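Shipment paperwork, digital attachment
Item: protein structure file
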Amino acid sequence: MSSEQPGFSESPVTRGRPTSDSGRSSETTGDRGPPDDAVHHEATVLVRGETIGDQKPKTPTNESLSKGKETAPRKEVSDAKVKRQNRLPLLDDDPEVGVRKEHIVIRDGKADLAFTGTLLASAAPSAAPKGHWQEYRIYETTGGKHVFSKVNRSVFAEEQDAHQADVFEPSPSSVPSQLLRSARDLTRSHPLTWMDAAVAFFGYDPLAKDLYRKLSGQFEEHIT
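Attachment content:
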């Protein structure tokens, strides 16, 4: 019997210097590319204490675009008010200038003024492109008083017209006249007139100046 036993061949062992982690990584992975967790890992940046992941720029949606295009609803206009606007600068009571008759002047928040007298002058703008305008009027009563009226008009159905009015009495019996006279006496030497009261009520805007021109040249400041 032969005493020979089958031999075993040993694989050669390669001994070399240790490689670094990066070297081992490249050796182990070979051509397989980066690991899956490296591919799907989100890039994270820390900005002022906030963690921001990969974000795509937001594009405006149809809803946001429609909101930007929304406009204020159109106001409903009154046909009667539009007709009044189309007649500017003519007013309904222009034919009554200089005619003595019964008048009722509306005042908001106060009693209306009813009197017999004459409409001395009225003024309105030539146009109202935005649907709003003012009307100025001056009356003289049979008792020698003057009534000043200012009306703010609108063509829109849901907007009410605004009415202001005041009365000037030639005698300082009324409180407004006394207060106005005291203020004027500080700077004027002549007694307070109804024209001074008109300027105190209407001021000197372009429409007020148009009203004054229809009355007399006494509203102008004459210098030498």
